[in-house]
Amino acid sequence: MSEEEARKVIDNLLQEAGWVIQDVRKINLSAAKGVAVREFPTKSGPSDYMLFVDRKAVGTIEAKKEGTTLSGVAEQTARYNASVLDNLPKVDDVLPIAYESTGIETFFRNQRDPDCRSRRIFAFHTPDSLADWIQESAPLRARLRELPPLDPYNLRQCQIEAVTNLEVSLSQARPRALLQMATGSGKTYTAISEIYRLIKFAKARRVLFLVDRCSLGRQVKKEFQSYIPFDDNRAFTDLYIVQHMTTNVFDQDAKVCITTIQRLFSMLKGDQDLDVSLEEKSLYESAAPDIDPQAIKFRGKIPIETFDFIIVDECHRSIYNLWRQVLEYFDSFIIGLTATPSNQTIGFFNKNLVMEYDHNRAVADKVNVGFDVYRIRTETTEKGGKIPSGFYVDKRDKQTRKVRWEKLDEDIDYTPDQLDRSIVVKDQIRTVIREFKAKLLTEIFPGRTEVPKTLIFSKDDSHAEDITEIVREEFGKGNDFCKKITYRTQESTDDLIAAFRNSFNPRIAVTVDMISTGTDIKPLECILFMRDVKSAVYFEQMKGRGTRVIDPDDLLAVTPDAKTKTHFIIVDAVGVCESEKSQTTTLDRQKSVPTPKLLNNVAIGIRDNDTLSSLASRLSRLNLELEERDIQRIKEASGGKTLSNIVNDLMSAIDPDIAYDRDKACAPFDNPDFRELLTALQTKAEQTIDTTTVDKVIQSGYDQQAKEKASSLVKKFEQFIEENKDKITALQIIYNLPYKKRHVTYEEIRELAEKIEMPPYGFTTDTLWRAYEQLEKSKVRPASIQKQLTDIISLVRFASRKEEVLEPFREHVEHRFQEWLKSQQLLGKTFTDRQIQWLTMIADHIAGSGSVDKKDFLLPPFSGSGGIIKAKEVFGDRLDEVIEELNSELVG
After folding, report:
1. Where does residue 575 fall: left (phi above 0), alpha (psi -120 to 50 degrees), or beta otherwise?
2. b/e code 526-559 from CB counts within 10 Å (16+ = b)
3. Rounded CA gap, 124 and 303, in Å?
């Protein structure tokens, strides 16, 4: 494209942005707010375009032919901007606005910016925006350097670090920044805190908050509504308008717009509206739809400067391919939020990772809770099975779930990969759920009576339906106990998620991927995987649903026998924690394109990587569902090739290291009969229900990796005791009890707890207790629901082999107290009812504090019963003897 042709494109872009184009001979600066005058003279020669706003010169555009590298053109534009004719009305002696453009590529800079540099933009800014910028005392990039110090009010340390680091990046005008913050660490709260500062102090005009799906948009809107800034007692939404977009219309007064990338794409295409249902499915494992890479054209009604900042929440792979044109349309800073960045994510954000706060750091800071893995293995899950010929089987349509009978003419052998896809073995599902139920309150959550809030990940909606039915049966509960939450659920998914989060029921939710990312379910304590996951990033997101901490009172409100959430359990029924994970993306990159259309696209010659990859993915899944007669039909129609051969050829064609001939790989699809056969088989989507197989559990228990982790933890703890038994006062006393009569004080116990929690140890009573429970289950009693600091005494005594059983310290004290009372009776010593009352109070105090002293009698509950004076009256001269004896006998 020549420079003359480039100018025609530039003219169109300027006009779309609201500029009036004029030749210098026919200049009329009153014709519009913004006028672009061609070939306007300067002291250095004619500028291709001189831009006037409200009759004043504001900048220039230098046009070049397509292919020109624009970085070297900036000096020419700068020369024109500094050579404006004398006496010409202008905003500055040196014009601030500079563009260089080929019509295909456009660079822009505002020379008022500190350390100004050119940046690539999609099109031109509107005259109104330039008018606003010129009137500002300082441009946005200068204001970002003048933000006031951050007030740490109501912010965690990790959030303070994230905001501080991000603002350093913004002050350097770096266009993209990525924050990695562990699930549950408050990414959204951090983002809102930063948005508030950007609007109030940097005078940002508007911020876009992109979410993965519409339901998360509603969740984010609520967080804005509840956010109270540090310097105002009003909510964010009382100060600024926040719009959650459910139509394709911007609220021009909104400071924050919340939407999905699907809706934004729809708007930039010029669509009148978007079906809300298209925003409800997560894009986490999806790619962009079947869209032209140049589908988005410049639309003056949505200026490129609409947003100063774009926050991409839970940014995922959908922004890296065809969706990225939506983000790159806007002249905005792009800030990504994620718990699990892939290499692709880091690359998209120009390796500008301004915050790294992973799950391990979050656990150390008590922002997240850790997890253990409990493994369930069954024979059918691991080996597959066989349905003998001669049996009647059910054939079920996956979509309608209509069932018909069929007598088998030959055996059906199936692999584990076919389970819950082409073959459904109800007893395999039942065996897993039955084993899960049997071990849930005995091994997984020992001592509990209520089913903890549990999320089950299934393979698809049909699988979720089967699991839901069997869970209700096996637990003997009603519909409210277990709910399916998928995109095909008839009930409101928002209401179901809210009930799962805030109400007693449902105790168990079954989903495919609706609750896999972003959704906040703090009371969740157990995740059961009945599907494998190949994406490392997606698996981390799914695990992240269980990591969130919760206030004990809030947990108690939905799970009455769970006083504190110290960890969560992954119950792995498919080997998901053991299977290899990949950073690569899904093969099916065009999920919205129907298979018949993919087949026809290949037939007419569309053979790009995404098309062939998506087709290979569909056919490989279909291959798992084929019966023997279907395999033969495919072989005949394809000219002798199996579906496996064809899939391998497609994959070889898109592999740059193999580069197999694409025409050869696609040759079978030239045959219309073959395409029709594949369409018919794919549409059939029928499952065989195996009612003959009786599954059995091979093994269940905490996995070996968890045991190795527990063993390492115990070893380090016991090494700590050995190395410090003569250095730390509490250890000196506890380790040598009952031989030393000096008792340990509560302050000394607290000092010990603080030392073991500090690096390099990072021990907590909860993690140590669980570690011993996994290694020596028969010797470990369930940890007390009411956590007490004195439990560390029990741990030290057990670790140093002073006790044969690990039990909560309160239970230990109660047992010793009852034994002491019996021994006193055998010695002929009796106590009055009043003395028993005081002895019980003393024992209770020792259980909570590790010891008792006469000065403790000044505090409740002793003070409420008369204090030290009453104690002396009750026990007389024996008071000191009783105190010393109980300190020794109940702790030792």
Report:
1. left
2. bbbbbbbbebebbbbbbbbbbbbbbeeeebbebb
3. 8
pLDDT of residue 409: 79
Peptide bond into 506 cis (omega under 30): yes
Which is it for strands 392-397 and 370-378: parallel, antiparallel or unpaired?
unpaired
What pLDDT sits at residue 657? 64
pLDDT for 532-579, tens place per residue? 887 777 788 888 889 888 999 999 999 999 988 888 999 999 988 887
Separation of alpha carbons 370 and 386, rounded Å: 40
Question: What does residue 176 show for φ and ψ, rounded to 5 degrees?
Answer: -135, 140
**DSSP structure class, residue 104:** S
Calpha distance 119→404 (Å, rounded): 63
The neighbour count for residue 888, using CB atoms within 10 Å, is: 19
Residue 243 phi/psi, 5-degree rounding, is: -105, 120
- Write down how long the chain is: 892
Give residue 871's identity as a one-letter amino acid code.
A
CA dist 673 and 653 (Å) reads 23
d(CA 119, CA 98): 11
pLDDT digits (tens, 9 = 90+) for 657-693: 677 888 899 999 999 999 988 888 776 667 888 888 8
CB 571 within 8 A of CB 528: yes
Evaluate whether 484 touches 506 at the Cβ level (below 8 Å): no
Structure token pair of residue 164 = 């501080």
Distance in angstroms (rounded) separating the CA atoms of residues 788 and 765: 9
The CA-atom distances, in angstroms, between 108 and each of 61, 78, 94, 174, 334 are 9, 11, 16, 15, 17
| Cis amide linkage into residue 738, ω under 30° from 0 | yes
77 in Cβ contact with 39 (< 8 Å) = no
* pLDDT reading at 707 higher than 60: yes
Helix boundaries (H) for 639-745:
643-654, 662-666, 672-684, 704-724, 729-736
The type of residue at 260 is T
Distance, in Å, from the CA atom of 845 to the CA atom of 827, rounded to the nearest integer, reads 25
Q: Backbone phi, then psi, for 95, in 5-degree steps?
A: -65, 135
What torsion do the CA atoms of 267, 269, 274, 277 make, to the nearest 10 degrees? Answer: -110
Instruction: Give the pLDDT confidence of 217-230 residue by residue, as tens digits.
Output: 999 999 999 999 98
Q: Where are the alpha helices (DSSP H) in 115-186?
A: 127-135, 140-143, 157-171
Alpha-carbon span 886 to 181, nearest angstrom: 49
Q: How far is CA 539 from CA 254, 275, 523, 619, 695, in A?
A: 36, 29, 20, 24, 27
Secondary structure in 3-state letters for 458-502: CCCHHHHHHHHHHHHHHHCCCCCCEEECCCCCCCCHHHHHHHHHH
Q: Model's pTM, two decimal places?
A: 0.71
Q: How wide is the angle at C-alpha 651 spanned by C-alphas 645 and 655, nearest 5°?
A: 140
Give CA–CA dist 712/768, Å, rounded.
11
Query: By C-alpha distance, which of 527, 97, 484, 493 is closest to 279?
Result: 493
Q: Which two tokens stand for residue 433?
A: 């759920």
**559: Cα within 13 Å, side-chain hemisphere:** 29
Q: At what angle do helices 704-724 and 765-775 cross, to 10 degrees?
A: 120
Residue 466: alpha-carbon gap to chain centroid: 27
Between vectors from CA 245 to CA 242 and to CA 250, what angle results, nearest 5°? 80
Return the bridge partners of 375, or none.
572, 701
Are the C-beta atoms of 217 and 259 separated by less than 8 Å?
A: yes
Say which residue the tokens 């049966």 belong to. Answer: 473
The arithmetic mean of pLDDT across residues 770-787, rounded, is 79
> What is the DSSP code string of 327-358?
HHHS-SEEEEEESS--HHHHHHTTT-EEEEE-
Report the chain's C-alpha Rg in angstroms: 35
d(CA 703, CA 578): 10
Coil/strand/helix, residue 242: strand
CA dihedral 598, 599, 600, 606 (to 10 degrees): 60
